[in-house]
Automatic annotation (TrEMBL), chain A:
Domain Peptidase M16 N-terminal stretches: 72-191
Name of the protein described by the UniProt record: Putative Zn-dependent peptidase
PANTHER family (UniProt xref): METALLOPROTEASE, PROCESSING PROTEASE
Domain Peptidase M16 C-terminal: from-to ranges: 201-375
A UniProt-annotated Pfam family: Peptidase_M16
Region (Disordered): 1-32
GO molecular function, a single term: metal ion binding
InterPro entries given in the database record: Metalloenz_LuxS/M16, MPP/UQCRC_Complex, Pept_M16_N, Peptidase_M16_C
TrEMBL record, chain B:
Listed Pfam families: Peptidase_M16, Peptidase_M16_C
Domain Peptidase M16 C-terminal residue range list: 182-363
Keyword annotations of the record: Hydrolase, Metalloprotease, Protease, Zinc
Presence of the UniProt keyword Cell inner membrane in the record: no
Record keyword Protease present: yes
GO aspect biological process, one term: proteolysis
UniProt family annotation: Belongs to the peptidase M16 family.
Protein known as: Putative Zn-dependent peptidase
Domain Peptidase M16 N-terminal: 25-141
Organism encoding this protein: Actinomycetospora succinea
Length: 459, 436
């Protein structure tokens, strides 16, 4: 593709006018809070309805606490719960599986169920004119799902196949190993049941769990869209009038996260290694939370961070490196993650530990803090601009006992954090001595380097 | 030149179109719903245009465009977007590459500056090239080599269905090709394809169109015009038989299968193309869809099945030739041909009888709903408008899609089902090779 006029790379990179100055930011327009009703029904169900009428849709989120409180080790709860979330759409006393889907499709709607160690989560949406249909189908599923024997047998088979597929993903293997390393046998570690446990689940066990655990007390239903909030709450009240039965089961507090060597988990033949490091942190209601968020961003919470600039943009070890806060109803943990080429597993761990130590003792500069602050405030604004984003955010907050006001007030908290407060959070939470974690890698290729580095348990 | 269209549910979303003297096409779309703006550049080059021996180059080049430009040191682009409160990304498709950011509206001019600077004078250096080759290799390991079903079907199916290099090769690239890429390749690629006349700039959100037009002019107008490359045809005849290939996947726990068919040229017959999009929905979208009902629940032959109009999962993302795919993951005890036969049986039924009107209405309602949701997200709507302007020459198409989908007739769907002929297709099977 050479043409006579072709320029060199160097010629392309400069113009006669030379480099130009970055334009300043203009003043930012503020947005008024949307109309909202946040109330608790007699059943104990909290309902939050928000008017956001940009498109003629309504988004629905339901979060029901759904923890395993059996206290039994190797409980069948995770398997039964997973199958419940799968087969609840298989039919009700009034609708077949196809009938459910047809009624939802008729109003441009969809409903999905998912379960994790903390809760059962229902996500749905429909054209705004279909709100009643959406609520009516939801009520039918919550109250009258039948989990038919034949459908359940088929879904059980399929679920086993899906778990096998997921279990082959390096990210899932790493997640399982990390949960076990951090929390031992606590129910929080049971994010995906074992195939053999699923195979043993009966339809009666699923029906029994639905009857016993799917309760409105402590649950939250969020509706965001082209609706009148008070009217929407009345519709929820009418549609879910029969959903009663007391308190749902919240997750017990997690065991304290203790610092340990990382554990090497062998995955023979893998061409990439998963590094996962974790340490205790604090949740949204702690006064240090905003400072911790800014320290976390500076380390690896966004692209312009120390981890990404070192591991990816300088060393080329990885496509992504990140640091994040995992929140649970009782607290939080820090999680540093990266996937790197097998041959640089030990060097990448060295750099990750270096950046953790550096954050603790060479804290984020004023520029780093300001960049993280602008990003946190701006990305919060952007994430709340869609009905779906707004609904998910409010549902997550409400599941942890907070309201939409918390997120509206959060930018002011973020603006008020000082550079010293960020430094204090960095020193308190990011020192490498607080961390535990796992390395999933081909041990034959990586064990020697990790041994040389130390702080890694090599089986 | 200015024209206007109306998006569903948004009376105030006029679309303003301009062309700068250097040939850059500009779309300005006010959307005051939230105080945010989006800026996107779509360039008319994708992985189908990359030179032989340089597989993966279009994507590698996309990475290089983030590595700095005349006014911006390495890392400055990321830092300026994020420290303005914004998010950014880029992606490489068959026929185009996009670069974009969404930010609080206070940063509109800054975003235009950042995009203009790299379209004018990207900083292409040896050090950045080598670094990004390493990063791209890790991206490929993450998404393809170290996971089950990596590149299935978008990398693995085209070489079975197509003969020519542009259509058949791996757009992520072979490691040997990536390692051989040099700075001269990058300079030649930029000069050939990143001319302002070969790109579309889309600006959407909380903006005044006149003011935005002035800012666009200020930052982009002095990029010199360059020759716009002639767009080659990638046409090749449809397969004259059944082409089969088997690939062993060391990470896959279950076998899988993909059928590949040629789609009608959307440029020549948009209605026929869209009938295939509706057909894909009728086959596998939702629990009541025909193949889902029959193969997942009825015959229990597959774990999951999915039909897609377009190789990358979305309709109208590429020019002709493009691919209709049916992919399924199934237990080892099921012979792949039983699945193929069942698909053919359902297609024959649909070709003979067509869908019923109520079934079609439900598919249409779901399309409308998914389009509303897409439009609610400024980033999605911006990318859809920019891609439609570049690929189909009409941004309006992105907003008109639900109406056009609603107008698809049962007869057109029947014809689409009949066009997926059993004697002109690719069949790719994936065999698990674990424990090897």
């Amino acid at each position: 593709m050479s043409a006579p006029t072709r320029r060199s790379a160097e010629e392309i990179g400069s113009t006669p006018a030379g480099p130009r100055a970055l334009p300043p930011l203009r003043p930012q327009r503020a947005v008024p809070a949307p109309d909202e009703v946040d109330t608790v029904l007699d059943s104990g169900l909290r309902v939050i309805a928000v008017r956001r009428a940009e498109v003629p849709m309504v988004e629905m989120r339901l979060r029901v606490p759904f923890a395993d409180v059996s206290g039994v080790e190797n409980s069948d709860h995770p398997a039964v719960a997973e199958l419940l979330a799968t087969t609840i759409l298989s039919g009700t006393q009034r609708r077949s599986r196809v009938g459910i889907d047809d009624d939802l499709a008729g109003v441009g709607g969809e409903i999905g169920f998912a379960v994790d160690p903390e809760r059962l989560a229902v996500s749905g949406h429909a054209l705004a004119e279909g709100l009643d249909t959406l609520l009516e189908v939801l009520a039918d599923l919550l109250l009258h799902a039948t989990h038919p024997d034949d459908e359940l047998a088929r879904e059980r088979e399929r679920l086993v196949e899906r778990i096998e597929m997921a279990s082959a993903q390096p990210s899932i293997i790493a997640r399982r190993a990390l949960q076990e390393r951090r929390y031992g046998t606590h129910p929080v570690t049971q994010e995906m049941p074992l195939p053999e446990d699923v195979t043993a689940v009966t339809a009666d066990a699923v029906r029994a769990l639905q009857a016993a655990a799917l309760r409105p007390g402590g649950a939250v239903l969020v509706l965001v869209g082209d609706l009148d909030p008070s009217d929407a709450v009345r519709r929820v009240e009418a549609a879910l009038a029969d959903w009663t039965g007391g308190e749902a089961a919240g997750m017990p507090a997690l065991p304290a996260l203790t610092a340990r060597d990382l554990l090497l988990v062998d995955r023979p033949g893998s061409v990439q290694s998963q590094l996962r490091l974790s340490a205790p942190a604090i949740g949204r209601t702690d006064p240090r939370y905003a400072a911790l968020q800014l320290a976390n961003l500076s380390l690896g919470g966004y692209f312009s961070s120390r981890l990404v600039e070192n591991l990816r943009e300088d060393k080329g070890y990885t496509y992504h490196a990140s640091s994040s806060l995992e929140l649970d109803p009782h607290g939080a943990a820090l999680l540093v993650e990266t996937d790197v080429a097998s041959e640089v597993t030990a060097p990448a761990l060295l750099e990750a530990r270096y950046e953790l130590g550096r954050l603790a003792v060479v804290p984020p500069t004023a520029d780093e803090v300001e960049s993280a602050r602008r990003y946190l405030v701006g990305s919060l604004l952007i994430s709340m601009t869609t009905q779906a984003g707004y609904a998910s955010t409010v549902a997550s907050l409400a599941a942890h006992g907070l309201s939409a006001a918390w997120i509206r007030e959060h930018p002011a908290r973020v603006e008020a954090v000082t550079v010293d407060e960020v430094a204090a959070a960095a020193a308190e939470f990011f020192a490498p001595i607080h961390f535990t974690g796992v390395v999933v890698a081909d041990a034959a290729r990586c064990a020697d380097g990790l041994r040389a580095l130390g702080g890694v348990e090599v089986p | 030149m200015t024209s206007s269209v109306t998006a569903p549910g948004r009376a105030d979303s006029g679309l303003h179109r301009r062309v700068l003297d250097n040939g850059l096409r500009v779309l300005l779309v006010p959307d005051p719903a939230a105080p945010v703006v989006g800026v996107a550049v779509h360039v008319d080059v994708g992985f189908r245009s990359e030179p032989e021996g340089r597989t993966g180059f279009a994507h590698l080049f996309e990475h290089l465009m983030f590595q700095g430009s005349e006014s911006l040191e390495k890392l400055a682009h990321f830092r300026h977007v994020q420290s303005s409160g914004g998010v950014f990304n880029g992606s490489t498709h068959q026929d185009y590459t996009n670069y974009f950011e969404v930010l609080p509206s206070a940063a509109l001019e800054r975003a235009l500056f950042l995009e203009a600077d790299r379209l004018r004078a990207p900083r292409l250096t040896q050090e950045n090239l080598r670094n990004q080759v390493d990063v791209v290799k890790e991206e490929i390991r993450l998404n393809v080599l170290n996971r089950p079903y990596g590149g299935f079907p978008w990398i693995l199916l085209p070489p079975v269905l197509y003969d020519t290099y542009p259509n058949a090769h791996n757009g992520y690239g072979d490691f040997t090709d990536l390692e051989q890429a040099d700075l001269d390749d990058a300079a030649a690629f930029f000069d050939a394809y990143y001319a302002p006349g070969n790109a579309v700039l889309t600006v959407v959100g909380d903006l005044d169109p006149d003011e935005a037009a002035t800012l666009v002019e200020k930052h982009f107008a002095d990029i010199p015009a360059r020759a716009v490359p002639a767009r080659p045809s990638f046409a090749e005849p449809p397969p004259d038989g059944v082409r089969r290939e088997d690939v062993v996947d060391a990470n896959a726990p279950l076998p899988a299968l993909a059928l590949g068919h040629r789609l009608p040229d959307p440029d020549a017959d948009l209605d026929a193309y869209l009938a295939h999009a509706v057909l894909a929905s009728l086959l596998t979208d939702g629990e009541a869809a025909r193949l889902t009902q029959r193969l997942v629940y009825g015959d229990a032959l597959v774990t999951d099945i999915s039909a897609s109009c377009g190789l990358m999962g979305a309709p109208l993302d590429a020019r002709d030739p493009d691919t209709f795919t049916v992919t399924a993951v199934h237990p080892a005890s099921v012979e792949p041909d039983r699945i193929v036969d069942a698909v053919d049986d359902e297609l024959a039924t649909l070709a003979a009888d067509g869908p019923d009107a109520e079934e079609l209405r439900r598919v249409t309602a779901r399309w409308a709903s998914s389009l509303h949701r897409e439009h609610d997200r400024l980033m999605s709507r911006m990318l859809a408008l920019g891609a439609a302007e570049l690929v189909q020459g009409r941004a309006e198409l992105a907003d008109e899609l639900p109406g056009k989908i609603a107008a698809v007739t049962p007869a057109a769907v029947a014809a689409a089902a009949g066009s997926l002929r059993p004697d002109s297709r690719a069949i790719l099977t994936i065999t698990p090779g674990g424990d090897a």
